[in-house]
Amino acid sequence: EVSTEDPEIAFCTLANREDLNPEEGSIHHCLYQFTHNEKLTETNKLLCDVCTQRHNGPKKDIKSEKKYVYTNAIKQMLISLAPPVLTLHLKRFQQAGFNLRKANRHIKFPEVIDLAPFCTAKCKNVAAGNTKVLYSLYGVVEHSGTMRSGHYTAYAKMRSMNDRLSDLVLRGQSPPASETEPVKGQWFHISDTHVQAVSAAKVLSSQAYLLFYERLL
């Protein structure tokens, strides 16, 4: 879908992303890099339908007669609809030449994360005036081992039902601006049939592969 935005707000976010100053090796830094402006120039220029139509005029309808016009552009990936459940997939496997290897670096992630610096200024399901889009961590998938062999385990938080999340999933209603603390509950580590209660500190020190957050605000 192609839409025309006011150039003044096309690259604006709900909260000022430049105030973040994200720490290297954190999930905030990953999101900041993923949503950074990218200039499209030279061989990456964007095919512009408006420029092409302007150049060829209204009578040039036959494709073979058209000269397609490409122009410099700026590309940015931002969130336009805040999801009820946020799933973040960390790229743990990378190609080095002809070989694949696993990235074992620890990535810091919080119990509560604010997506506002990565959402468009006109995010569709955020109430007007809100400058926070908060999510609480409730699940982590961890991979141990190498590319040749390994094991997946999970951390999950047992908590009470989140009625506001149900409203958001079923009826699309934005949650009220109230709690900003993590959803209370007990963390468990699950490895095959073995389940063990663990602390939040243990969860936050894990080598996360997948992160699952539920929307608070």
If you consult CATH, what is the topology of the domain at 80-215? Cathepsin B, Chain A
CATH class value of the domain at 80-215? Alpha Beta
User: What pattern of helices and strands is seen along the backbone?
Assistant: HEEHEEEEEEEEHEEHE
Helical fraction: 10-25%
Looking at this structure, what is the CATH superfamily of the domain at 80-215?
Cysteine proteinases
Rounded to an integer, what's the Rg over CA atoms? Answer: 22 Å
Number of helices: 4
Q: Can you name the CATH architecture of the domain at 80-215?
A: Alpha-Beta Complex
Number of strands: 13
| Structural class category | alpha+beta
**β-strand amount:** 25-35%
Q: What do the pLDDT scores average to?
A: 86
Regions with little confidence, pLDDT below 50 for 5+ residues:
none
What is the first-to-last residue Cα distance? 28 Å
Main beta-sheet strand count, sense and barrel state: 7 strands, antiparallel
Tell me the overall shape.
Answer: globular
